[in-house]
Amino acid sequence: MPRFDRSHTDDLAAFIQAAPTPYHACAEAGRRLEAAGFERLDETAEWTLGSNGDAAGHYVVRDGSIVAWRTPGETAARFRIFGAHTDTPTFKVKPRPDTGSAGWKQVAVEVYGGVPHQTWLDRDLGLAGRLVLRDGAEVLVHLDRPLLRIPRLAIHLDRGVNEGRALDAQGHLTPIWGLGEPRDGEFLEFVAGEAGVYPDDVLGHDLFTVALDKPAYLGKDDELFAAWRLDNLTSTHAGVAALIAAEDTGANVPVLAAFNYEEIGSMTYSGAQSPFLETVLRRLFGEDQRTFTRVMAASAMMSADTGNSVHPNYPEKHEPGHRPIAGRGPMIKVSANQRYASGAEEEALFRRSAEHAGIPWQYYVNRNSIPGGTTIGPISGTQLGILTVDVGLPILSMHSARELCGAEDPAHLADLALGLFAH
């Protein structure tokens, strides 16, 4: 099997390493956009979008979500929006984290999103997130080293472990981080010290456990790619790469919208159910709301998220007539009940984009007896009132601490985004 061009997937690996949380993902996306000539805007400031003629585009960050766009030309007539999300199932540190038992220091955590518990056991974990200081400043934290561990009960003490023993989220998933008696405030003092700030200045925190295994290629010919946060940094990274590359799109205004909180329902002031994206798009037209309404009527969105590849050990879990396989390109996700925002018009939009990009593609449909998950697609399409199609990469081990995809597929997804922006 001939070697493929690994440049895009190598770059995705670097993006994943730099983006252990939604806040880091926005920072890394912003860094890349600014290097390409984009300018960051403050939501609380007046926007004079024509004042910087050198800006390739602009972007705005709110609470782990980012909206970025290319500067509209004189012929701008419609938006082409590539949607994604920045969060991932993991464990979030509780407000008062210091706890412990039987001579072990532990950190109190809460399950964030749909976490398959077993994949996080006996794994060296780091920590990342943000600290919000007394003056309102936000400090990013990334402790990229073994710090925490959720230990498995030894098989000698749990003879039924291979018979499907359930784990209690409150009692069995508290990580250890040292020996001795816990002291209130000790863990946050440690994190503040690592961040170079005074503990008394920290008034809030969003801290998460981090899987430390580095992204890697697998297989005889490196045809597989494994990493944490493929769901959904593959899509966020693809959108950033496509937006940077989309230099001539005629009447189309390319937009990237990557939201936080998708894994827990999107009902936050910065999530897909919020007015964040619509507010940003409206500001591009100032007071000219009639033009905005016409532009939105001609606009379209592609919601990109991962989906389940057929599992070779559990083929009965999948819809028999639609079996996407990793390595064969992005999927269009179809659901009669609109768990995915795809119908005939949406399928045509997807296929035109894929044909323009010259990439392979597949269908994904849930098995009738297994409804599956949903995405930002139906939410954003409803919020904006625009044509929206759901797409994504087929992966194995979704929501695990280590997910797997075809190594060429991430580049195909970025090409699909470019195809959307171009027509």
Automatic annotation (TrEMBL):
Cofactor: Zn(2+)
Gene3D superfamilies: Aminopeptidase i, Domain 2, Zn peptidases
Highest rank taxon of the organism: Bacteria
InterPro entries noted in UniProt: Peptidase_M18, Peptidase_M18_dom2
The UniProt record lists the keyword Protease: yes
GO cellular component, one term: cytoplasm
Name of the molecule in the record: M18 family aminopeptidase
Keywords on record: Aminopeptidase, Hydrolase, Metal-binding, Metalloprotease, Protease, Zinc
Biological processes annotated in GO: proteolysis
Family that this chain belongs to: Belongs to the peptidase M18 family.
The UniProt record lists the keyword Cell wall biogenesis/degradation: no
NCBIfam families named among the record's database cross-references: PRK02813.1
Native organism: Glycomyces terrestris
